[in-house]
């Protein structure tokens, strides 16, 4: 049977990729992915055939991967972080129904929520919610409801896709919603370019976060009512007695 891997390559740096993912990529003939993600792995896997599609061409990218696997090649479809977290795994499973001759193998990776949390300190030690602010596939009204309910339930909130050229004020809007249930002094943090060149992080208050300049390669953490600064790090206590 023809083999097709769906692989999460982690935040960006080769060292942050799982051993299983690296071995699967070394055993593949073709590596398929979004242009930016393919560029992150290209130098580490010389001699492979690389195929890319731009943003918004996700369905075409999946079809391309299955088409190559159907030719008898071992193919790897890559995503940043974990392919099952805002990635291509679900779409690959659905399209895979049309290619019964292709064996689909799913390999997880380190997602931005956990990879960036390690940069900031320990913001996710207790219950948390991950919410994307991208309204490309999800209506803003639904995103707004999820933000309000997560804030009311006192979850630590991790935000993916907090801003873009077309959504410059979305993080500010999200902070405004959370402020209905959290004080402006709430400890927050963000990390830009997790595990990549130009990595930058900051721990700041929710009030300060409203005006922070972030982009699509930034992940944001909004603390719960117990989150605090510990030696310059962002820490959410689990409740252990010290």
Predict the CATH topology of the largest domain.
Methyltransferase, Cobalt-precorrin-4 Transmethylase, Domain 2
What summary fits the major beta sheet?
5 strands, parallel
CATH architecture descriptor text of the largest domain: 2-Layer Sandwich
The run of helices and strands is EHEHEHEHEHEEHEHEEHEEE
In which order are the strands of the major sheet placed? 3-2-4-1-5
Catalogue the unreliable spans: none
The amount of beta strand, in percent, is 25-35%
Helix content: 25-40%
Shape: elongated
Number of helical stretches of at least 4 residues = 8
Whole-number tally of structural domains: 2
> Averaged pLDDT, please?
96
Short note summarizing the structure:
This protein is of the alpha/beta class. It is 29% helix and 26% strand.
Features:
alpha/beta; Cobalt-precorrin-4 Transmethylase, domain 1; 5-stranded parallel beta sheet; 5-stranded mixed beta sheet; 26% strand
Task: Report on this structure.
With 242 residues, the chain is an alpha/beta fold. The chain has 2 domains: 106 residues, Cobalt-precorrin-4 Transmethylase, domain 1; 124 residues, Methyltransferase, Cobalt-precorrin-4 Transmethylase, Domain 2 (2-Layer Sandwich), CATH 3.30.950.10. It contains 8 helices and 13 strands. The protein has a 5-stranded parallel β-sheet, sandwiched between helices. A 5-stranded mixed β-sheet has the order 7-8-11-9-10, sandwiched between helices. The chain has a 3-stranded mixed β-sheet with strand order 6-13-12. The termini are far apart. The model has no long low-confidence stretch (mean pLDDT 96).
């Amino acid at each position: 049977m023809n083999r097709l891997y769906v692989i999460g390559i982690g935040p960006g740096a080769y060292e942050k990729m799982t051993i299983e993912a690296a071995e699967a990529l070394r055993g593949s003939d073709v590596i398929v992915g979004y242009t930016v993600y393919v560029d992150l792995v290209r130098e580490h896997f010389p001699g492979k055939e690389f195929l890319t599609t731009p943003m918004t061409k996700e369905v075409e990218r999946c079809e391309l991967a299955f088409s190559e696997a159907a030719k008898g090649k071992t193919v790897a479809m890559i995503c940043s972080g974990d392919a099952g977290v805002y990635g291509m795994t679900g779409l690959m499973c659905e399209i895979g129904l049309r290619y019964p001759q292709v064996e689909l193998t799913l390999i997880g990776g380190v997602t931005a929520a956990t990879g960036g949390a390690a940069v900031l300190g320990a913001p996710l030690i207790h219950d948390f919610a991950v919410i994307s602010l991208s309204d490309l596939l999800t209506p803003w009204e639904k995103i707004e409801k999820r933000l309000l309910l997560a804030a009311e339930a006192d979850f630590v909130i991790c935000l993916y896709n907090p801003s873009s050229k077309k959504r410059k004020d979305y993080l500010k809007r999200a902070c405004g919603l959370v402020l209905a249930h959290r004080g402006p002094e709430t400890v927050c943090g963000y990390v830009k370019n997790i595990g990549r060149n130009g990595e930058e992080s900051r721990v700041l208050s929710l009030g300060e976060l409203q005006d922070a300049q972030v982009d699509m390669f930034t992940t944001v953490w909004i603390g719960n009512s117990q989150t605090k600064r510990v030696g310059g790090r962002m820490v959410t206590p689990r409740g252990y007695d010290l």
